[in-house]
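Task: encode each sequence below as structure tokens.

Item 1
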Amino acid sequence: MDIEYCKDRLIAAGVSFAPGLSPEEISAIEKAHDFRFPPDLKGLLMHALPVSKGWVDWRQASSAEITDRLNWPLESMCFDIEHNVFWLDAWGPKPADNQSAFEVARKAVAGAPRLIPVCSHRYLPDSPCEPGNPVFSVYQTDIIYYGANLFDYLCNEFSYYFGRPEYAMTGEIRRIEFWSDLVDR
């Protein structure tokens, strides 16, 4: 992924940037929030930090704000368990009370790769910690692939500025434990 090209296209799309995160800042964020940035996302954030609406300002956001964004996939899943009869057969019979059902979902999500917010409700899994993980659009349990990788995601999200006439997935999509199963269901 050509990071400078991506930054240029994102600036054209109206995205604002702050100076990139330092290795120490990256390490502190990862330690504080118990995940690792995959190399492609880390490279972008170290080159230039997107700070526009929807993006996580990893330098200025409070720990609580970051935690809220990290917890969004689970919280929105719990919403669908309570309000939209979402339940996975693999979890066994659904408990009668919501708190017990939420605990089953919490354990399932805790055992899955952590989803790192990229922009708005688009997330990149932290595992495997290598370039090329897909970007998921996560809105409650409406979970789809929004890019086969980070670059593909940027081309889809900001298609006009990347010269992509329409949403398209390019390349093979890496399967991600748990999350890919939700896409497939």
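Item 2
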Amino acid sequence: MPLWVTELLTGHPKHVRHELGVHKHVFRALIVALQDAGYTPSKFITLEEQLAIFLYICITGLSLGHICECFQQATDMASKYVP
């Protein structure tokens, strides 16, 4: 899992809420719900990072280029997880 997402999930609970707009327990519940629905990590990106990318875009409204820089992903990789 990328360092930033790991730091969010292992750090102070307020950081997840501030950066992704959900409490840590909600983030974890969403991961379980996605797994139950059949979603899996891809070869290059964890399910946690996929969800973090989606939530971060929803909260910040940043462009795909900014998101790719933040998550250190290529544009074509990150765009697979942007609705």
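Check on item 2: The helical segments are 3-10, 13-20, 24-36, 47-60, 64-71, 75-78. The chain has a mean pLDDT of 82.
End of task.
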